[in-house]
Sequence to fold (990 residues):
Amino acid sequence: MNTFPDIPLNQIDEVVNRSWQAFQEYRTLPLVKRAVLLRAIAAELEDMGDAWLQAAHEETHLPEPRLRTERARTIFQLESYALACAKGDWMRISIDSALPDRNPPRPDLRKMMIPLGPVIVFGASNFPYAYSTAGGDTASALAAGCSVIVKAHPAHPQTSMLAAQAIERAVQKTGIPAGVFQHIYGASFEVGKQLVQHPRSAAVGFTGSFSGGKQLFDWANQRPHPIPVFAEMGSINPIFLLPDHLQQQATVLAEKIAASVTLGVGQFCTNPGLLVAIASEGLEVFRSKLIECLRQTVPAEMLHGGIQRAYLEKSAQLREQPGVETHLAATQGPALVATSQLTQVQAKQFLADRSLHQEVFGPATLLVVCANTDELKEVAACIEGQLTCSVFGSDQDLHQYRTLCEELTHRCGRLNFNSVPTGVEVLQSSHHGGPFPATTDARFTAVGSDAILRFARPICYQNCPEEMLPDELKSDNPLQIWRKVNGEWRNGSMG
Amino acid sequence: MNTFPDIPLNQIDEVVNRSWQAFQEYRTLPLVKRAVLLRAIAAELEDMGDAWLQAAHEETHLPEPRLRTERARTIFQLESYALACAKGDWMRISIDSALPDRNPPRPDLRKMMIPLGPVIVFGASNFPYAYSTAGGDTASALAAGCSVIVKAHPAHPQTSMLAAQAIERAVQKTGIPAGVFQHIYGASFEVGKQLVQHPRSAAVGFTGSFSGGKQLFDWANQRPHPIPVFAEMGSINPIFLLPDHLQQQATVLAEKIAASVTLGVGQFCTNPGLLVAIASEGLEVFRSKLIECLRQTVPAEMLHGGIQRAYLEKSAQLREQPGVETHLAATQGPALVATSQLTQVQAKQFLADRSLHQEVFGPATLLVVCANTDELKEVAACIEGQLTCSVFGSDQDLHQYRTLCEELTHRCGRLNFNSVPTGVEVLQSSHHGGPFPATTDARFTAVGSDAILRFARPICYQNCPEEMLPDELKSDNPLQIWRKVNGEWRNGSMG
Fold:
């Protein structure tokens, strides 16, 4: 699919060094300049109009309305990170004044965030805009003050090129050093490895499969100087359906969940691949309705042949596991079309067979039927780290299953109540992350302005003369940033 | 020296499982309860009086005044983390309210920090109190809501035991589950490995050598589920002596720096092992005075035989490197005594020979003489990640060397102006960390209340009913925590 030539391996050194050179200048620019760049990128993306939509549609087979929404999200993301960047809260500034009369005298200490250096970004195939070339990793790295090298995703090379050109125009128009953003192609394993292991690469952002993310993580940690990798990888996003709610709302619930399972042909990292419930009449009603809804969903084309093949293979493997009952089997339609799948297994079998816990990327979900509350809790306690867990329950259920909910907070990055996991808001309060293997570092988010923190670190200035301080730390607070000064939040001068 | 038996390897599983069990309960306790525990530990340490001092003096040979200061620091640290823990700012709470009329409706999102799980702590030999059993790693892990397993440092097993017993008394008196803190011995390699690689271990805190910290980091990353390691390792803490200041203040400067180099027999992670200056008359005066001051310093005993041996070996190796001139050679005194060392090398040689960049743990420093400003900047650009860098300069110097100072922020965690690096304040604005190889994760600090963040991660509650929310996130804000609510800082009710 990719007609763009791979970068020759002997040019990677030049690319990373160029990024590093540009970083030397970019990192010193004021926050407002970074915000201007992010807004200029947003404007350039907007200005491309339908050309960018058409390229993405051709390469990903995603329908136009979905692509319009994703494009709007990508533009909003750039604008919201621009706002956050200039506002400066993300720098988590703390100032403790000198106490010259203490014995020994206490120095003046002022702490803020500075960028790490060149960030290598590997985008996702399933979000050609929002998690790709001009997506969240690029936006947050630029907001942090880092330079960026994007390796284009081979599944949408043209879409990626158009985004890169838009960014390059924005860089040029805003007078930012050109090397701050670079875009390269490289389908080979070795390109990724050399980028991640180059001595001047400082961090990695990745969205994709477990095997891809884990490989980058290992390469980064095997360097003489390891660097942080934020890889957002697989997740099965379990939904726990509690008994009273199931009894009362079986039909509505089935409709909601069917819509979430099949949204975007199931090609979301927050797709609910696991449903957990106690055997009951309500569950029977729910299941019948779920099967009906899944059957009625008009099947659509998947992103590319590789994803379709993997979906059909993995969903077939799942059906053949011992104890697995199939209510609806995934089938191949014309071209890249694939239909949804519903399988079922008893909790005992699920607990015994780890292969049932694996992600099937696509519109498939596995219903785990528990004999009782204890089994439900055992299932909750055995699931691996997730981006999200969800609970559907009445007030009565939630009261009764309070400890289950508490347990689930330790399994995921986001806990939903009576709502489906698909749909991730670009907000500071969002957390799109979670314990391994959902991501390689549970302490950071890939979405929302706190994503900037992945690519920054604190520096403390001790006894720095006022005129040598960066504006962010000056006593008169010219940028009016909210700072913690001697333990109190203030956005004015230290006075 | 260690007369306590190693833990049998087959008991490690039980210890970690016990920690994990206790964590299940401890993590649900309110912040104020964690603060009560930390204060109770501080009180128990205080109550031990001279017994604890005596044990530490016998095991570490550190003089009593130094130990009294370190004890006070350790107690202050526990109290200040207790305060920070209960205040809750460290949880970085963010709330974005629902917008039900938006299309699609925006959910209610509330984000806070939760603890990671059992933390394995490996203390330092050079700080038997403040960076050891009841030190910063233990205090911050407990504040985060984690359970703790300390592997006692083999160089001060009795001091460690007394601290552990004090913590255990505090745990008992405050009604905290006993397994929240456990203390074990294990000189063998395998004990550390099994602790770090146990499936239920969640994070690692370490202070010590590069080889020790890097080994733990590698073990943690080789797990099927990698876990974060915060290892504070070596640092040579370069000091840049700028020309005008050298000219004006050579004598005073030499006195200050000699005191910093020899403080605690040079056994500080912030010990200045490198001095960088341009050849000048001022430098000659400085050097003569420095030699005089170092000679006059009364030599003292080092921590233990291993450290003394390593110091004498490494300082001898340094003297034998090509181009190294010796002004004062380290010598062995009676028992564990060792004298200080001053060597010198031309910048060209320093730039060419990486072995000269290595830490010599003890009262030794290497003077790098530059021919001109360009060489000084080259030296600054080639040094590895450091805990601290320091600059001594007049106003005129600092104005002239502004880009040097900016460059140094990207080499270290703390940049000092006209002050020596030894001495680390326990304050929120402190940053005791730095780029690899100073630490394994530049994004976190080992000292100051932000150290808590090493052992916590965000969780986001989506559409959570009010009565199911933890107190930290409730709309009426019963804990009066400063939270970001719809983009504004508030410590009251959402009202």
Summary: The mean pLDDT of chain B is 96. The two ends of chain B are 61 Å apart (CA to CA).
